[in-house]
Amino acid sequence: MCQVGMHPSVSSHSPILGELEDYLHEIRGRDAESRDTDDVYSQLAQKEKDLLLAAEIGKELLERNSDLSRQNERLTEEYSRKLEVLEQEKHALRRKLESLAGESDGKVGELQADLAQLRRLDKERGHQVQELREQNSRLSTELKAAHRAEEQARQQYQTLRQQLNLRRSNLDDHMSQLEGLKEEITMLTDRKADLERRITGLMDDRENLSLSLEESGDRILLLEQQRLDYELQIRQHSREA
Predict the structure, then answer these.
(1) Eight-class DSSP state of 36
(2) How far apart are CA 87 and CA 90, in angstroms?
(3) How far apart are CA 178 and CA 156, in angstroms?
(4) What domains sit in the chain, N to C, each tagged with a CATH number?
(5) In tens digits, what is the pLDDT along the chain, a chain of 241 residues?
(6) Distances (CA, A) of 178 to 62, 79, 98, 111, 166
(7) Fewer CB within 10 A of the end CB, N or C, for the chain?
(8) Cβ(4)–Cβ(86) below 8 Å
C-alpha cells in the first residue's frame, strides 16, 4: 500500500539572511553616527552602496522565495498524487471486502442449508435404524417361538413314532397324524427359513444405514469446519479493512 512520505522541512536560515541582518545592524549604527558628522557626500556615497547591497539582497530573497514556491508546489502535487492513490486503494479494498462478504454470506447460507438437510436425513435414518432394530427384535422373538414350536413338533413326532411302533393296529390313524405333523413341521421349517431370510435382509439394511450414518456424520463435521473457516476469513477481512 502506498504511503505519503514525510519530507524534511526547509530551513528558514541562509547566508543571505545573515548578511541582511548584519547590513540592517550596520545601517542603524551609521544612522546614529550621522548625527555627529557633516560629511554629506560621504553619507550619500554610503547610501548608494547600501541601496546596491539592498537590491542584491532583495533579488536573492526573491529568487529564494521563487525556489521555495516551486518546491512547495512540487510537494503539494506529490502529496495530492499519493493521496489520490491511497483513496483509490482504499476504495478498491472496500469493494473487495464487500464482494468477499457477499460471497461468504452466500457460501455460509449454502453450507448451513446443507448442514440442516444432512441433520434431517441423519434424524430420519436414525428413526429407520430404530424401526429396523425393533422389527429385528420382533422377528427374533418370532423365530425363537418357531424354534420352540418346531422342537415341540419334533418331540411329538418322536412320541408318535414310538406310539406307532407300539400300536401297529392303529397304523392308519397314526400315519394320518404323522403326515399332519410332517406338514406342520414342513410349514414351520419354511416359516423359519423365511424368518431367517428376513432377518438377514434386515441386518444388511441396518449395516448399510449404519455406514450411511457414519458418512453423514463425517460430512456434517466437514461442513461445520468449512463454515467456521469462512466466518474466520470474514472477521480477518473486517479487521484488515
Answers:
(1) G
(2) 5
(3) 9
(4) 15-240 (1.10.287)
(5) 444 343 333 344 445 555 555 655 565 555 544 444 446 667 777 777 777 777 777 777 777 777 777 887 888 888 788 888 888 888 888 888 777 777 767 777 787 887 788 788 878 878 887 887 888 788 778 878 877 877 887 888 888 778 767 766 666 766 777 788 888 888 888 888 888 888 888 888 888 888 877 887 788 888 888 888 777 877 777 776 6
(6) 140, 115, 88, 69, 14
(7) N
(8) yes
